Amino acid sequence: MGVAMMAGRAKFIRRAGIAFAATAALTATTIAFADTHQHVLLKEDLFGNIPNVTIRGVAAGGAPWVVDGWVKLTNDHLMASGKWLIIPKTGYLANGKPIPAAIAGTTAHVPEVLAEVTFANSPAIVTAPVKLSSDGDFTINANIQVPAGASQPIVLIGPGADGKMKAWFASTNFLFNYGVATKASVMGSTKGMGGSKSW
User: Fold this and answer.
1) Full-prediction pTM beyond 0.85?
2) Under a CB-based contact definition with an 8 Å cutoff, are residues 80 and 113 in contact?
């Protein structure tokens, strides 16, 4: 192999190595940037409401609602998507009466919904309203800013106006681990009971 050819090959390898190193550095920087600015705080399914239940100051709708949907919350973005956000055909209202046939299986003509992101220790964030189709479909895609140190987020979906939610129809899993007994939570409360259960 001639000297010129060897020199050309070495130059090509050196340039390829530099290009590869630059690409790797750019990729690492991009990943680091994404990790810094897109920290996932919550990724959960949505669940229909429970009448007479209030979550962080927001009361449930007077009728039960069902939904098939999900939420993804990062420190600067909220994505919520759902379908069949409707009042089921069977069930009971907050007053204990059966769901009226006139609204059973419908959205009760609710035209829009919004999301309220609530926290245990920070003010809530409310998104702009979006259209709720007659089949109960909606998509919320909002740029937000979660306060530093905000914890225990719960996302509520429902109608609202003037930056406030009127009632929640769906939410992320606020019941996660609620009411689950642990040894620490019942320590000493079952002494003398012999470990038996009464149904």
Assistant:
1) no
2) no
